[in-house]
Amino acid sequence: MTQRDEILTALDRAFEPALVPDWCPNGLQVEGAEEVQHIVTGVTASEAFLKEAVRRGAQMALVHHGIFWDGASRVLRGSLLKRVRVCLEGRLNLVAYHLPMDRQQEIGNNAPALKELGATELEPFAAVKGVKIGWKARFREPVGFAELQRRIQALYGQRITVFQHGPAQVRTLGIVSGAGQGDVVHAAAEKLDAFITGEISEYSMHLAREEGLHHFSVGHHASERMGPMCTAAWLARQFPVQAEFVDLPNPA
After folding, report:
1. For a pLDDT cut of 90, what percent of the chain falls above it?
2. What's the pLDDT score for residue 8?
3. Same domain, 180 and 216
4. Residue 96: which residues within 8 A CB-CB, separation 6 or more?
C-alpha cells in the first residue's frame, strides 16, 4: 500500500494545478482511505463510475471531470449527494484534474494523442484563462487526409464528425479536447491544416470552410479518455499500486 498523500503530492507535481486557473478545485475533492493499493481512473465522476470503482475495491478514483464546479449549488442533494455518498460510504478518495490534465504533456489528453497520431515537434497551443492547454504539432512527412481520418477514427474509437476543408496533404495539426470547438479560431490564426476537438457547434462548419482547415469532432468523452489512460499507466509505474482505466461509454 501507499499513503494517499504521497500519491497526491506526486500528482500535483505532475499536473501543476497551481499554474492553471480553472472552474473547479483540482486535486483531492473527497477524502477517503489513508492507504491506497488500488486506483481507478476515468473521464467523469458519475455515480455509476464511482460505484464501479468501489465495486473493484479501489481506494482512489482519479478523473478529469470531478463533482464540484464554480457556479454550481453547494447543497448536497440530488446527483451531487448521490456521488458524495458513494465516496463516503466506500471510503473512496476522489481526485480530479481538469484543465491541468488537458495541458500535461506526458500524461494529458492532448499531447499524447498527437504523438499517437504520428506527429512531432509539439508546442503548447490555444490559451484558456491565459494558459495554453492544447497542443499543436507537425508531421515529418505530410499525411493524406484519408489516412489522417483513419488514424483519428482508430485512436478515438467512435463515430466522428468531419468538415473537410483543409489541404489534401496535412502537415500541421492542433488538438484541444472536450468543449474546445471555439478554439478553431486559434487553429485558423496559426494557419494549421487540421484541428481536433471533442464537441461541435453550428459555427464549426462555417469557420472550417472559411478558414480552410479540416475540423474533426470526436466526442467530448472520447477526446478526454487519453489523459486518464496515460495517468493510470504512470501511477502503476510510480507506485506499488494497481492502477486501471475504466471506461463507461458515453456517445456525447
Report:
1. 99
2. 98
3. yes
4. 24, 25, 26, 27, 29, 45, 62, 63, 64, 65, 66, 67
Convert 41-52 to b/e letters by CB count within 10 Å (16 or more is b): bbbbbbbebbbb
What domain range is 16 assigned to? 2-99+225-245
Of 29, 50, 32, which is closest to residue 95 (Cα–Cα)? 29
Does residue 144 have a pLDDT over 90?
A: yes
Residue 71: Cβ within 10 Å count: 5
203 and 114 co-located in one domain: yes
Cα–Cα distance, 123 to 141 (Å, whole number): 18
Query: 47-55 and 78-90 helices cross at what angle (nearest 10)?
Result: 10
Cell 456517445 maps to which residue? 251
Name the region of 125 (left: φ>0; alpha: ψ -120 to 50; beta: rest).
Answer: beta
Torsion of the alpha carbons at 228, 234, 239 and 243, rounded to the nearest 10: 40
Give this prediction's pTM.
Answer: 0.97
Contact 152, 144 (CB under 8 A): no
CATH number of 118's domain: 3.40.1390.30
Q: Is 157 helix (H, G, I), strand (E, B) or coil?
A: coil
Query: pLDDT grade, residue 1 (50/70/90)?
Result: confident
Round to whole Å and give the CA distance between 160 and 82.
32
Q: Torsion angle, CA of 126/175/97/202, rounded to 10 degrees?
A: 80
Looking at the structure, do residues 24 and 75 belong to the same domain, yes or no? yes
